[in-house]
Amino acid sequence: MPPDMSATRPTEVQEQRGAARSDAPWVVPGGESHGLVSYLEAIRYGRWIVVGALVACLGASLLYLAQATKVYEASADILITAQRELPVPISGIIVQTSDPTRDVETVARLVTSPSVTRRVIEALELDRSVSDVVDDVSAQPLAQSNIVTITAEGATPEEAKQLADAFGREFVDDRTDRLHAELDEQIAQLEPQVRDKPTAAELANPASTAAQLGTLRQLRLGDDPSVSFESAAELPESAASPRPVLTLGAAIIGGLVIGLVGAFSLQLLDPRLRREEQLRASFRLPILARIPLERRRKARPLLPSELSLGALDGYQALRAAITTTRRDSLSGRVVLVTGASPGDGKSTAAINLASTIAAAGKRVILIEADSRRPSIGRALDLRAEVGLASVVTGRRYLVDALIPVGGEDAKLRVLLNSADEAPAADVLSRLSADTLLLQAQRLADWVIVDSPPLNHVAETLALAQVVDDLLVVVRIGKTNFRDLTELAEMLAQQDIMPAGFVVLGGHARTAYY
After folding, report:
1. C-alpha distance from residue 78 to each of 105, 228, 245, 330, 335 (Å)
2. DSSP code of 224?
3. How far is it, in rounded angstroms, from Cα 440 to Cα 450?
4. What rounded mean pLDDT belongs to the chain?
5. From CA 235, how far away is CA 244, in angstroms rounded?
């Protein structure tokens, strides 16, 4: 059995670990900021939704314009001239009243009556029903005037003009015919009561039968004096429907509204980390490195030989950020790399950070503490005979379980999980984690621990309590922001302050080579 390694760490190491904690709160209350910047970021993040909605609405409007039948409109006017009160009551003539507006509205309703419509159908020789023709015509009073405007629709400019004019003429003719019929009846009744040659006195008296008969005969000679076809319709120069400019304008406005609603809804419903500004607004932690996302994607972590120059620069910056804060010590420094959500890229970050430090000539041990979803062995094409669980439980020495990467004299060695052993997280405790890391510190200058998300595998929280630095890896567009907040709350409860964030997919600079 290996000897007991649970001795107390050197005082300097304990002080270094204490430096990783802070009494000052590093979680900003209230989280993400709001306001104009937040809305602009929502639009930027959901710009493809806005563009998609705009393209869809414009496409639908263009399709409508290509298939829609053109409709032309023409307007004709009828003038209403209310008459003074006549000595003989005649219902077919509009007489002046105290409410002239009501008389104009009455005429507007009568313009499209069935009798007038049938006269129009007969005059134009249309093969259409009354209701079908009425659907294409409307009559409305013109503001507060005594004019009724007749608007007709047609498939051609000529058809619209003919229909509007026909309704104006036929309405006047229909009113005139009705008036003449009424006058003929009254004249026939009064003629027997009047002598062949009435006296001048009888004609001068408006109340006399002779005078009334003369008035009726005078009215019978002309059209209805209370209505007249004032102006014929002009030939329309352009179609009233569809209107390309109006249709396209409405499509643009509608597309923008739908797109903006979609972008804001995505911001409210999407729990993913969308931009670096969310980190700055919610946490008082520095961004130690920005690693661009690689175009090549694999089902395992990427090795340094598979990274772009920009990504290599990012890991060089990360190494510089954590090594400049190190104080001289007789034992190695322990860095735990974790994330908030599965798939954030923490294993890739741990492998490449360890490789970058080893490339600088330092002895590095990389510990695969994620025993539930191990990926380092698969990425490095290595298989462990002695795994992490055997070392944690004290059955085997750490030095016997380490596997060199790149030859026996390699600066980088890894401690993997064995498929034949139980998950190491199930046997981890603060004492066993402390013992494991003490052994690793005596064998290396740097110890990098690839940890599962602490908020998903709480057993590994024991590792976070005994390391020198804790790095939180986040991936733009992938990390669940709620999980990140939950991780931050868990660490804050344990009085653990991370060293900072490693952002995958952040605003990385172009490689400087």
Report:
1. 12, 6, 32, 106, 92
2. -
3. 14
4. 84
5. 20
Task: Quick: pLDDT tens for 314-355.
Answer: 899 999 998 876 554 556 799 999 999 888 889 999 999 999
Say whether 104 sits in a helix, a strand or coil.
Answer: helix
pLDDT digits (tens, 9 = 90+) for 158-196: 999 999 999 999 999 999 999 899 888 888 888 888 877
- For the CA atoms of 447, 452, 454, 458, the dihedral, rounded to the nearest 10 degrees, stands at -110
Tell me how far apart the alpha carbons of residues 411 and 233 are, in angstroms, rounded to a whole number. 95
**3-state SS class at 20:** coil
Tokens representing 388 are 């992490």
**334, 440 contact by CB (below 8 A):** yes
Nearest-5° Cα angle at 119, 114 to 124: 125
Backbone angles phi, psi at 77, to 5 degrees: -120, 140
Nearest 5°: CA angle at 228, between 98 and 90?
55
pTM: 0.59
CA 194 to chain centre: 86
The DSSP 8-state label assigned to residue 426 in this structure reads: G
Query: Which tokens is 313 given?
Result: 């620069």
- Asked whether the beta carbons of 291 and 313 are under 8 A apart, the reply is no
Mean pLDDT of 366-391: 87
Burial 141-180, CB ≥16 within 10 A → b, else e:
beeeebbbbbbbbbeebebbbbbbbbbbbbbbbbbbeebb
Residue 373: phi and psi, rounded to 5, are -135, 65
**Which tokens is 461 given?**
């929280």
CB atoms within 10 A of CB 94: 21
d(CA 370, CA 449) in angstroms, rounded, equals 9
Quote the CA–CA distance of 245 and 358 in Å, as a whole number: 66
Q: Report pLDDT digits (tens) over 5-29.
A: 433 343 343 444 433 333 436 777 6
Tokens of 450: 């690839």
Q: Is the Cα dihedral 497, 500, 502, 503 positive or negative?
A: positive
Q: Which residues pair with 367 in a beta bridge?
A: 415, 449
